[in-house]
Design goal:
The chain has a seven-stranded mixed β-sheet. It has 315 residues and is an alpha+beta fold. The longest helix has 21 residues. About 10% of the residues have low confidence. Helix 1 crosses helix 3, helix 1 crosses helix 4 and helix 6 runs antiparallel to helix 8. The chain has three domains: 70 residues, no CATH class; 133 residues, Jelly Rolls (Sandwich), CATH 2.60.120; 73 residues, Phage tail protein beta-alpha-beta fold (3-Layer(bab) Sandwich), CATH 3.55.50.30.
Length: 315
């Protein structure tokens, strides 16, 4: 009889944890004995060990459970799995215990995986909140301020010259009167892209400080350190996620995959470090994140293995 999905997930997570321990202490006889005992405890555990070991190149099927030698992965991409599995475990535990509690306490609106939410603000402005995102709204008599706490959001702002509208993403502040624009976190920076109107982007906390003026089609990534990257795209291509797409133009693969993570219910780990910095150009459909990930890494000869419903490994 096939075990329940939650039992399979538990066993797969435990198998990954044992593999991390084995990578750190490959000569520990006591550890090997505990692994063998865990495998022998149930067919579900043994199946999880075999399936997960295959991902890391461990030959777990060569002998009966208590006699099976545990072989440490030793080369290139096999070692990359072991290096990445710790990150995978951390990500999986984060999924298991729910979203960031601190963000939820601060936020007025929070979206879950693959959820897009439309919000009307008190002044008639509209916000489209992307998946895995959170905002805090703070309106006062002479100001309109929204804090982007995580993820990304697209804003359509009702003009009011007496009350500037600003979006704060950590140290980066975007100020407008009436316009439409997108703000999102990208690594250690915030990216602002303008569809209509004029936008001012500031980082007063960096040294030197940053002050930019953006027009329709302009985009800028402003780092917490003050580093700036900027460019231009057709204005209608701002916020392609609103149409269910990721549009990448010569972007690092790690950044594109990070955006894709908010559309998957589990963790994505790029096990091959060489892939992370490869540049990606293309249009990817967010309705099938697994296919999108395969397309993203496939152009550089990479592959994707789905270890479980909550873990994808690219290598």
């Amino acid at each position: 009889m096939k075990p329940p999905p939650e039992e399979e997930d538990r066993a797969t997570l435990e198998a990954a944890r044992w593999l991390v321990a084995l990578e750190e202490e490959p000569e520990d006889a006591g550890l090997r004995a505990r692994i063998d005992a865990w495998r022998a405890a149930s067919p579900t555990n043994e199946s999880a060990w075999v399936n997960t070991s295959d991902i890391y190149g461990v030959m777990a099927t060569a002998a009966p459970v208590r006699q099976a030698p545990v072989v440490r992965p030793s080369f290139g991409r096999r070692r990359a799995y072991a290096g990445a599995v710790g990150l995978a475990l951390a990500a999986c535990l984060a999924f298991a215990f729910g979203p960031d509690v601190l963000v939820r306490l601060q936020a007025d609106q929070v979206t879950s995986t693959a959820e897009v939410r439309s919000l009307g603000l008190d002044d008639g402005s509209m916000v489209r909140l992307g998946p895995g995102s959170a905002i805090e709204v703070a309106y006062a008599g002479d100001s309109r301020r929204v804090r982007l706490l995580k993820g990304e959001a697209f804003f359509e702002v009702t003009a009011d010259p007496r009350r500037p509208f600003s979006v704060v993403a950590r140290d980066v502040e975007t100020t407008v009167l009436g316009t439409s624009f997108n703000v999102r976190f990208v690594g250690a920076s915030a990216e602002v892209a303008v569809r209509t109107g004029l936008v001012r982007v500031d980082n007063a906390a960096s040294r030197p400080s940053v002050a930019l003026r953006l027009e329709p089609g302009d985009w800028a990534q402003v780092g917490w350190s003050g580093k700036v990257e900027r460019g231009a795209i057709p204005p209608e291509e701002v916020a392609p996620w609103l149409h269910g797409q990721i549009v990448a133009r010569d972007r690092p693969m790690a950044d594109v995959v990070d955006e894709l993570r908010r559309y998957t219910s589990g963790a994505i780990v790029i096990a091959d470090s060489a892939l992370r910095g490869r540049r990606v150009t293309g249009v990817y459909n967010l309705s099938d994140p697994v296919a999108a990930l395969r397309a993203i890494v496939g152009v550089h000869g990479g592959s994707v293995r789905q270890v479980s419903p909550w873990l994808l490994v690219a290598f």
